[in-house]
Structure formats: structure tokens, C-alpha cells
């Protein structure tokens, strides 16, 4: 059972009921994540777990954050606009991350091997939307938590769909301005967003986009379809996913 807050003493407090301490109360998290949809999911997970969250969209922003303060947990997405998150993980492992627990996040399960070799303590595969799983992974790597701290809540969070739309528009714009054939970052970004949104058709288009410039253009058309249909299509995709 989670630990309970001590009750204040004195008149007027006799009827106050004990409240449960959230599993990650007092924990600070830095999420190095460029997807707004994935970041919104992490925000909700941290909020409902009691953790404080900061976000960096690039490696450069993450390095700036880490030069100023040391979070308890650093969640590093592997595909970022200015490089590979593996490089940041390697830097933290080499320089010593202090008390920080460094965990990798990716929509590509094959990223596990490179992240672990670089020094990550663990790996979270997208979608990261299960409250219990998120809490269990974090608690499994933290030291010094109260003995009674345990994961609570089995529900899955549902991030704001506007954040998903923003990601899709951003990806479509990147494809429109891309040159010299398929762009690795764009493809990996869309694949991660698709997994977070439980959209296998979009993920498949992203995987295929690696093959040619024509396939990349095809991915752009799929993105435009998602954007035109708006929330109705997103809700249908979500409703069609198998129960877990």
C-alpha cells in the first residue's frame, strides 16, 4: 500500500481523511521528446503519478537543461531533430548522470539494443500510455523511494488529439520541403507518432517510406488524409484497436 501523509494536529482537522501519496511524488522527470502527442501522454502520466515534468524537444535543449539542474529521471527519445538520442545517453553514461536514471523511448523496438549499449538503464517502447506500466518502470529503477511506494492505477491515458494533429501537420510540412529522397528523421518521427496513436496503417506507410522518394510522397498523402479527416478518423482508429 502507498504511504500516507501525516495528518496535521489541532482543532478543525479531526475529520480530515488520510490521503494516499502518489507513487512518483517528489520525482523530477526530463522528457527529451519532439512529438507533442507523446509529450502530452508523458505529461498526463507524470501528473497522475505525482512527478514533476520538464520537456526538451532537441538534444541541444536537453543539454542546456542538464547543465542547469539534475532530474531524477531522464527519458530520451532516440529520434530527435538534431541527432540521435543514443548520443545523449552515451554522454550521460560517460560523464556520470549523478542520481539520474536514464531511460530510452522509441517507436522502433530495434532501438533497444543501441540504447542499452550506450548506457541506458531501461527502454520504453511506444506507445507509452499505460499508467501502471509507466509507474512500474520508473519505480523499478529508482532508489530511495518510500518502502510502501507502489504503482497504482490500471487505466490508459488519452492525450489531447489536437497534439496528434499538430504532429501530423508538422510531419506533412517536413515532407513537402524535403529533398534528396527519403529523410530518416521524418520517417522515424511519423513511425513513433503512429505507434503512439495506435495507427498501424500510418506506421506501415512510414516503414515503407524508407524505400524511395515516391514512397515518401505516399506517406505525405496518408498524412494529409489523416489531417483532413481530423478527430473522426483518429477516434475510429482508436476504437478499432484490440483491447488489452
Briefly note the structural class of the backbone.
alpha/beta
**How would you sum up the major sheet?**
5 strands, parallel
Q: Which strand order does the major sheet show?
A: 2-1-3-6-7
| Ends apart, CA distance between termini | 25 Å
Q: Provide the helix percentage.
A: 40-55%
Number of helices: 10
Radius of gyration: 20 Å
Low-confidence stretches: 1-5, 7-19, 237-244
Question: Would you mind describing this structure in some detail?
Answer:
With 244 residues, the chain is α/β, with parallel strands linked by helices. 49% of the residues lie in helices and 12% in strands. The protein has 10 helices and 7 strands. A 5-stranded parallel sheet has the order 2-1-3-6-7, sandwiched between helices. Strands 4-5 form a two-stranded antiparallel sheet. Strand 4 and strand 5 form a beta hairpin. Helix 6 packs antiparallel against helix 9 and helix 7 packs antiparallel against helix 8. The two termini are 25 Å apart.
Describe, in short, the structure shown.
The protein is an alpha/beta fold and 244 residues long. Helices cover 49% and strands 12% of the residues.
Chart the SSEs and their pairings.
Layout: E1 28-32, H1 36-49, E2 52-56, H2 59-68, E3 73-77, E4 79-80, E5 83-84, H3 85-95, E6 101-106, H4 111-118, E7 122-125, H5 131-141, H6 161-177, H7 184-196, H8 200-208, H9 213-229, H10 231-240
Parallel strand pairs: 1-2, 1-3, 3-6, 6-7
Antiparallel strand pairs: 4-5
Amino acid at each position: 500500500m502507498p504511504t500516507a501523509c501525516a495528518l496535521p494536529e489541532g482543532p478543525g482537522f479531526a475529520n480530515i481523511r488520510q490521503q494516499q501519496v502518489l507513487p512518483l511524488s517528489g520525482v523530477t522527470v526530463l522528457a527529451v521528446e519532439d512529438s507533442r502527442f507523446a509529450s502530452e501522454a508523458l505529461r498526463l502520466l507524470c501528473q497522475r503519478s505525482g512527478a514533476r515534468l520538464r520537456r526538451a524537444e532537441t538534444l541541444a535543449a536537453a543539454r542546456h537543461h542538464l547543465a542547469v539542474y539534475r532530474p531524477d529521471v531522464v527519458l530520451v527519445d532516440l529520434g530527435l531533430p538534431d541527432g540521435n538520442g543514443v548520443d545523449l545517453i552515451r554522454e550521460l553514461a560517460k560523464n556520470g548522470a549523478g542520481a539520474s536514471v536514464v531511460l530510452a523511448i522509441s517507436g522502433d523496438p530495434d532501438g533497444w539494443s543501441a540504447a542499452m549499449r550506450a548506457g541506458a538503464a531501461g527502454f520504453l517502447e511506444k506507445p507509452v500510455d499505460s499508467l501502471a506500466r509507466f509507474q512500474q518502470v520508473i519505480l523499478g529503477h529508482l532508489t530511495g523511494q518510500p518502502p510502501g511506494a507502489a504503482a497504482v492505477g490500471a487505466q490508459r491515458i488519452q492525450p489531447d488529439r489536437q497534439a496528434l494533429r499538430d504532429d501530423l501537420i508538422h510531419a506533412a510540412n517536413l515532407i513537402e520541403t524535403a529533398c534528396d529522397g527519403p529523410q530518416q528523421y521524418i520517417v522515424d518521427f511519423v513511425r513513433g507518432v503512429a505507434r503512439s496513436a495506435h495507427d498501424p496503417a500510418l506506421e506501415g506507410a512510414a516503414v515503407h517510406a524508407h524505400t524511395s522518394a515516391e514512397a515518401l510522397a505516399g506517406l505525405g498523402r496518408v498524412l494529409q488524409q489523416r489531417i483532413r479527416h481530423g478527430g473522426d478518423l483518429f477516434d475510429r482508429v482508436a476504437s478499432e484497436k484490440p483491447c488489452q
